[in-house]
Amino acid sequence: MSDYIGPVIGNNHKDVLGTNNQAGFETGQVVKVNGIYHMFVNEMFFRPHRDLRISYWISEDAVNWKRHSTIKESIPGRSPSNPRSEVWITGVEFNEMEDAWNIFYVAYRGGDSENGEYARSDYQGRIWRAKSVFKGIDGISGPYADMGIVLQPDENSQSWEGQQAVATFNPYKVGDKWYAFYDGHNYIPKGPWPVGLAKASKLEGPWERLPEGINPLPIAEEFIENPQVTELKAGGYLAVFDSFGNHEISYSLSDDGINWSPEIRIKIQSDKNLWGKEGDHAMRTPLCAIEEDDGTFTVVYTSMVNDDKKTFYAIGKCTLAWGK
User: Fold this and answer.
1) Positions in the chain whose pLDDT score sits under 70
2) CA separation (Å) from 242 to 17, 249, 252, 256?
3) Distance of alpha carbon 155 from alpha carbon 139, whole angstroms
4) For residues 93 and 33, is the Cβ–Cβ distance under 8 A?
5) Would you call the peptide bond into 143 cis, given omega within 30 degrees of 0 as the criterion?
């Protein structure tokens, strides 16, 4: 492993200061197209995990980043009647059938304290698909137009999904089929954060859940969030995701894209470069594991900065190697 010394985007980055991003970044995806890294990431511009906008950044080396635009914003006024109290992007894919980029993001309503819910928590996630207005690979920079909801709480919801689901949605292709990880969580009584799979014949849908018995997947015992999938050049699939552990992320491997191995945790900050805060939810979310030409993997991730004076979730970068 090799890691970049310190964050690649911290609270002193000029584009962070220029957009008054006070709390940092969380969840999203990085893709590499024609040698350029494209990052779609959520900015917690005021309060951590409360005030959200989806932003788009570009880089030639995954180290030096420039903010390009705001893609989507939450609607101010968190409440049970506001279905966009939070918006979180989790998936970015090129849709060959549409010749356009697709982004997938979850929109939550706020909790209803009068009905026994937690007012500060997010409920009934609905997964929106948006399509790039301009066609072709170069349309990745947007703008993006909403196409509709592809997965939401309904008569097909499964018992394990809980009150937060549908939480995150991360599509990937296996042969001529599409699959997507999606998360769930129950607040009352408090449960784990499991993950399941949905499938579709086309990226735009319709999407349907795999049956219970397959869902939820036995990858992590307690917590898994925002799995990002890489189809490996040597065959098989790699998923990286947010889990527990100090300065660690987790990964899982699959031969067929459906059956996944139990999580393995890996430290992504060296002992000489521990700029991330300690704790299970301080080292946060990997946004990609991009397989490079030399066989290594570029991992871009979010992490709370080790600074007691201010809560800020920065962007980090490291290079890893996996063997089959």
Assistant:
1) 1, 323-324
2) 27, 6, 11, 22
3) 36
4) no
5) yes
